[in-house]
Model the fold of this input.
Amino acid sequence: MTTHVSDSPANVVASRILGTGHYAPAQVVTNDDLAKKVDTSDEWITTRTGIKQRHFAAEGEASSDMAAAAGRAALAMAGLNVADLDMIIVGTVTPDHPIPGCAVHVQRKLGADDIPAFDIAAACAGFIYGMSIADQFIRGGSIRCILVIGVELLSRKMNWDDRTTCVLFGDGAGAVVLGPATRPVDGAPPVGILSSLIHTDGSLAGALNIPACGSAEPPVLEHLENKQDKVHMVGKDVFRTAVRNLTSCSAQALKASTLMSSDLDWVVAHQANMRIISQVSSRLGFPLEKFVINIDNYGNTSSASIPIALDEAVRDGRIQPGQTVLMCALGAGISWGAAVVRM
Ligand code: ACO
Done:
């Protein structure tokens, strides 16, 4: 997948993925491990979600550490150096600090120049949002090479008394390097991001949130005692919305790319729940065997889930150059999006 960022801006018609990478913390927490501190079981978690284990960050490990590791791996696959980057975009709702953004720390840890580096807070849709924004910059011709990262450290945002939600999430980071794709020659099909779209429905903000300890409800002892600084989710509402919206935005992205589901080689959907993925598969009429699935090993890593799954499938040879991949995600906001990419 090695490519060089050397194309003239006039010939740039899209952005393409030059390299992928991911990082998962070493500590693995199985369902049986969780059952020792939460009133749950491997049987319940497996049958309701498909999750068997997740990774938790070590003490002292921050989101930006995981993000920088994933970014370095993506740059290495692309055959590029940090000095080649023009921008860093990080999708995360678990930055190291409220101020400054996680991308600022990533820039510092990678040793990048004074290139723009900023966060996108679109929860599980953060990576699709980041990629869609990066695509606009590259198509516009002003920026050539962008590192897009999804990273989340949600194990520190769990309410361990809420067994329905706390068993779902894991920590990790995934990244892609995007660069220019030029006009195809000799009738070759176009490569790169063929379409991307993003949506938000703020009327559903209460279905998945951290209720307090932001500027609206500053941290007070009562909020901390009531775990209002932790993730709160109305799981059934999110589930129904996820199946409906992931299906519709995937169909929209396909239409915008002038492709049909039969043209796809792979779907990399957000890994929130195996039952959501199965229902999207049957509604799209695209076989489940062609979905890249790793929820069993990682749980829901929010904005990191798509780039982690993508990187695993690229590195183990499932996803090949020239193949067409649909990506779709939905999370808190409710925010969602999809992209069709020819690798
Ligand atoms: N272990 C054992 N039993 C449990 C557990 C648990 N961990 N959690 C709940 N139960 C019990 C409940 O108490 C309930 O028991 P009852 O029938 O006796 O009352 C029963 O299991 C069913 O509970 P439900 O909440 O109805 O379970 P459901 O089948 O809806 O599954 C789940 C819950 C997994 C959360 C599902 O709703 C879901 O996946 N929602 C979508 C999550 C999602 O997509 N998130 C995406 C975005 S995340 C982001 O953006 C950060």
Residues 192-342 form a domain with the Peroxisomal Thiolase; Chain A, domain 1 fold (CATH 3.40.47.10).
